[in-house]
Amino acid sequence: MTMWLRCALHAHTTRSDGELEPEELIAQYEAAGFDVLAITDHWIRTEAESTEGLLVIPSSELSCRLPDWPDTHLLGFGIAHPYWTGLVPGEFSIDGVAGIEVFNAGCELETGRGVATVHWDDLLERGARCFAIAADDSHHGDLDSRFAWVWARVGKRSVDAVLEALATGSFYSSTGPEIHEVRVDDGAVEVRCTPCQRVTLCSRRQRGSSVSFGPAGYKHRGEILAESDGITAARLTIPPHVPYTRVEVVDEHGRRAWTNPLWP
Ligand SMILES: [Zn+2]
Ligand SMILES: [Zn+2]
Q1: Does some domain include residue 264?
Q2: Ligand 1: distance of its center to the CA of 80 in Å?
């Protein structure tokens, strides 16, 4: 039996520069309905017990040097907040790590540099097998948590199963919308999701497909299959000769969800 677990994968406690004690952070995410919390204090591994409702994964956020970028941050998963850090697309690679943060809520709230789709697409265009997560990077309790998470698809509710899902890309990222199904079928991708204003199949530069909701909804190489206060199912044509595609949806509040890449 497979199930989806809602994961907060980037959060700090008083053991580094966060404001909540580990137990308070755990209680906050458990009360908010999360299934998994990775505590990622800077440079240390904060140990804390899982509770009945929340699997706690001890992780960490390290600093490292990339060429010309002396202070880059690296989670147990991969590169954190590339836009906020100042990494330049085309000038860094991700050898040896699982992926990057496509969205970091703290960086978005503080500086408007939370979204890293340009960095992600650049890595993918250059052939990287790069996954991406969305995360809070919570430091300030209620104020900067529960904005971004990962849905991990697992066979059972365990830390090992979550780590396996993260390593193999069996997850997607969200700031609100849910993506229920993505199916590749005869040159197209079919997507089923909670009501959204736009469903897009992103790919390499100048390629892609998209449908938008509403009377004037623009459609490019795609069709809406079902709607209910928004698009709930869409079929998007895969452009020819592209190295990857990935699905991105946006709801009426501007909240987004991102699947991992689909490689041919
Ligand atoms: Zn950081
Ligand atoms: Zn952080």
Answers
A1: no
A2: 6
